[in-house]
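Input:
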Amino acid sequence: MNFGHEHPEHPETTDERSRTEETPGTGFQDPEAEPLASEKAAGADLSGVSPGTAGLRDGTAGEPVPRLREEGVEEPAEEGTGEPAEELAEEATEETAGGPAGAQGRPFAFGDLVVFVDSKQRRRLQRLRPGRVFQAPPGGAIRHDDVAGLPEGAVVHTTTGQPILCLRPTLEEYILAMPRRTQVIYPKDLGQILVRSNLGPGGRALEAGVGSGATSLALLRLLGPTGTLISYERRPEFAALARDNVRRFLGEDPPNWRIELRDVYEGIDERGLDAVVLDVPEPYRCVDAAAAAVRPGGVLLAWLPTTNQVQELVVALRRHPAWDLVDTTELLLRPWHVSQESVRPEHRMVAHTGFLITARRVTGPAARTGPGSRD
Ligand SMILES: C[S@@+](CC[C@H](N)C(=O)[O-])C[C@H]1O[C@@H](n2cnc3c(N)ncnc32)[C@H](O)[C@@H]1O
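Output:
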């Protein structure tokens, strides 16, 4: 299956993304009982696995990052090992009024997403349904009927007496658990994207591509109901998956979000945008179109997994009179082990996810400040 344009000089650029996205087994997790990728059981051999980094697939090599699991802990339904797509479609079309958008602060109701957390911090995501039973990893079961009506944060006991904490999923937890068929931008980098894009409530942004919808979810939250997000995606199956993922989390199709099935390399129609956020293999091909689409002072932001992609984009931005303050960063997230006995960094961490490149739209000619800016 062809994922993207083959780059004439760096075929591996596209290929690496393709391998990541089309690794056999990437895809659907069991929406009925999704162990969160951030699942962290207590125990020494789980050091280094932390929310936001566990279970990442390396964006450059497409290889799974080694994951440490406590012995005897059930292997989670990693991508592709869960239920088939039809199961998801069913989830997405069911009554979704209980999505987190309007749910915060009120007791659990049928239709809500619930994270069940056991005493080893293993987490499972389920949608609350009448008559349904949650089989807890430590043993025993919990009837969904017994959870409906409880306040968030309540502890219920399984039929074998195990305490289980009930919470609504955070955005981070949901992104790590949601079905995905493409590589997603993980919460570690999403946080930076939200700040570096300089977007806020009421803003207007364009995103390409949509993939599984992780970035869309984060941007929608940032822009709020008065903002607008336009998302270009050239593959209908990914657009559909992203729409399902967003609907399952928010409980509705956000009226301020529009997905267009199209190739961002062929142009951007919007004008006066506050930011363009790119997660496509060859963003350097969008530099000109983005300059026409973004308002003066606005931001172009790209997430890229490899250095050759970064260099290509940065050179293109520096050569363009409408872009300045080109900036490249990489974010390292180091989880810590904190216990009564010891406080130290975890032994393992995810070494690499991707790079963030930003540039500011100027009315030109660009001042060209900064290292290497006159290349
Ligand atoms: C890695 S995924 C994006 C993941 C997304 N940011 C997320 O966090 O879930 C890349 C997506 O870009 C799409 N894509 C690649 N080239 C594109 C193009 N020229 N125009 C529009 N979409 C494109 C792919 O089909 C794929 O869905």
